[in-house]
Every structure is written in structure tokens, then in C-alpha cells.
Design brief:
The complex is a heterodimer of chains A (112) and B (113).
Chain A (H helix, E strand, L loop, with lengths): L3 E3 L4 E4 L4 E7 L6 E7 L6 E6 L4 E3 L2 E6 L4 E6 L8 E11 L2 E6 L3 E6 L1
Parallel strand pairs in A: 2-11
Antiparallel strand pairs in A: 1-3, 3-8, 4-5, 4-9, 6-7, 7-8, 9-10, 9-11
Chain B lengths: L4 E3 L2 E4 L5 E6 L6 E7 L6 E7 L2 E4 L8 E4 L6 E5 L8 E8 L7 E2 L3 E5 L1
Parallel strand pairs in B: 2-11
Antiparallel strand pairs in B: 1-3, 3-8, 4-5, 4-9, 5-6, 7-8, 9-10, 9-11
The chains are: A mainly beta (112), B mainly beta (113).
Chain lengths: 112, 113
Amino acid sequence: RKEVEQDPGPFNVPEGATVAFNCTYSNSASQSFFWYRQDCRKEPKLLMSVYSSGNEDGRFTAQLNRASQYISLLIRDSKLSDSATYLCVVSETTSGTYKYIFGTGTRLKVLA
Amino acid sequence: GAGVSQSPRYKVAKRGQDVALRCDPISGHVSLFWYQQALGQGPEFLTYFQNEAQLDKSGLPSDRFFAERPEGSVSTLKIQRTQQEDSAVYLCASSRTGPYGYTFGSGTRLTVV
């Protein structure tokens, strides 16, 4: 079982739709949580950090449930430019290393 | 520099050949990470440096993989006797310290034929 699990998709949604991605992680000692966005043949880029209280950045809302070890990302009013792979990331500390563990990624395609 | 720079962008190697991939982190970034990303997968951790010290190499898949950062800035990932399963994008990331502010380079796409 992978440490960070995501539905690989693809999710094909029409413009303007609301779409939600989920992610589960296995290490209860994980400390920090993020969503990264990766465009085709590009490097991952930080989309947002995820906090237990939930946080919002424009059309994007991220939520963390530590008890269930579950992270979510909600995208409202989808744009064509949101088409990308969304990577769920947890950060673990081992011997002083802050190591990022990535999920497989969820592919989103927003259709005109 | 302004970002993390990796070279070469693309590398085609014949099976059995040795390759060296270079990463120039952001100036002043203490932490440097190497990741391997196979097609359709998320990045997988390979190794981590804090300055010149390699603190974690648990993700290196075999003893054919070797990384160094001798002066605490530029890092090189070397793969000896490349195999087809080594074909992947190799990503380098750096951060000032701690778990925040990871910046990735554009990666080196290695194809072993």
C-alpha cells in the first residue's frame, strides 16, 4: 500500500463545474500537507498548503482531517486553465529530514 | 540564480552507459532533494542533502545510483550502468530550511535505450 493514495482519474468536467479530489495518507506522524499542481512535462508547483482548520485561496479550498488521515481539494467554477495533474503531498521528518511523499496525482481535464 | 537549474534537460543513454545529472539550487538554499518521477506516477524521493552532508539516501534504488554535493551548492546525481527501468524524469528541489518552500527544477528526462 502506498503511503499517499489518490484516485488517478482522469476527471473530465465541464467549465464552471465544481470538482473535488481526495487523498489519504498512512503515516499518522506526518506533519505538513500540501497540494501541488503539475502541468504536462513540467515540474510540480505548490498550489497551496493544507491546514486542519481548512483554508481557501480564491476558487480553491483545501481541508485536512487528521483523525481520518484524509486531505481534500475542492475547485469551484473550473476553468480550462485548471487542467493539470494535482499531487497530494505529505511531509515527514526522519532523522532531521523533511521529506516530501507524493501521491500518484489526479488528472483533471476541464472541457469547453 | 532565480530558480533551480537542472542540466541536461534531456538525456538519451545506451543501456550500460554511465550518466551524470546536474542540479544548481537557489543560492542560499541549505536543503537539496532528488526525486525520480516515472511516467504516470508521482515523484519518488531519492536522497536529501543539508549543505554538503547527505543525510538520507534511503530512496536510492540501487548501488548504481550515487549523489554528491561536495561544496554544499551544486549537486550531481550519477547513475552507473544505466538500465531501461532508470528511464524517468529526475527532479531536483531546494529549500532554505525545513519542509516549506520546496522549489523544483524543470527536471532531466532520461531515456535509456
